[in-house]
Structure formats: structure tokens, C-alpha cells
Design goal:
- It is a single chain.
- Helix 1 crosses helix 2 (29-40) and helix 3 (51-59) packs across helix 4 (67-76).
- A two-stranded antiparallel ribbon has the order 1-2.
- With 106 residues, it is mostly helical.
- It is globular and about 40 Å long.
- It has 5 helices and 2 strands.
- 43% of the residues lie in helices and 6% in strands.
Length: 106
């Protein structure tokens, strides 16, 4: 799987503009997970965020307008946790263990 992750990381270079913003959301699950990890790494662990703060972080990393898709996927893939009413979000502590094989240390 490690070799596949390296190939996906290389392919992902084409999905970003010169400012490092994501141009389109990849269709392949491994590539989506890598993209979501790049975004979650910009968030502080052990901090509570409002939905508005999460949206701003996501907005600063994508060049398209579907912030809700990215936020929903981050929750679905267990990178983010949230209260049921969506009033509070946080980075899930276990995400690094769950996705250890996807993490590319630069």
C-alpha cells in the first residue's frame, strides 16, 4: 500500500494550483483521504472550533465552493468530530493511527 500512496501523492500534484489550493476533489478514495489529511493538519488538536471556523480553514485550502462536501467528508472519514447539532467541531485524536499509511512525512 505504501507504494500506492506514493503514486497517489504524485498524482495529487495535478489537483492543486500554484498557491497550493485544491482545484477539484479527487474521485478516488485514497486521494480524497490524502487531501483531507492535508487540510486537517492545518487544525489544532485539543481545540474546539465553530462550524464557521472550520469552513474558513477549508475555504483557505480549496479553489472551489463546496465547503460542505469537504467538511462532511472530514467528519465521515473520522478526521473531525462534532456535536450532533454542528455547533462544535474538533480534530479526532485517533486519525493519525487510523490513517498512518497515508501520512507522508516531508
Amino acid at each position: 500500500m505504501e507504494k500506492s500512496i506514493q503514486i497517489y501523492n504524485k498524482k495529487l500534484d495535478n489537483y492543486f494550483d500554484s498557491n497550493g489550493k485544491l482545484l477539484q476533489y479527487p474521485s478516488k478514495k485514497p486521494m480524497r483521504i490524502i487531501v483531507l489529511i492535508k487540510i486537517v493538519r492545518q487544525m489544532e488538536e485539543n481545540r474546539k472550533y465553530t462550524e464557521k471556523e472550520i469552513n474558513e480553514i477549508i475555504r483557505s485550502h480549496i479553489a472551489f465552493n463546496d465547503i460542505e462536501l469537504i467538511r462532511r467528508e472530514m467528519y465521515q472519514y473520522k478526521l473531525l468530530g462534532r456535536l450532533r447539532d454542528g455547533s462544535e467541531y474538533w480534530v479526532e485524536i485517533a486519525w493519525r493511527n487510523v490513517y498512518a499509511e497515508y501520512i507522508r512525512e516531508d
